[in-house]
Amino acid sequence: MVMDTDRTEPAPSAASGDRDESGRGLLLVQALAARWGVERFVTGKRLWCLLEAEAEPVDFVGYLHRP
Asked: What is the residue extent of each domain of the chain?
């Protein structure tokens, strides 16, 4: 869950370069989440997402450190 004080609806945007450190957040949420949404409040908004777990655990450490 992420909250901010801007009430503007979030929109996916692409980073403008390979080294950009922003501009990919909502694209990642859309790609990885089973469901996601935005709740608006007088003071801003909250973006939430639901991630579904695999039935079998995944060895991410072994996966990331493959030769």
From this structure: 2-64
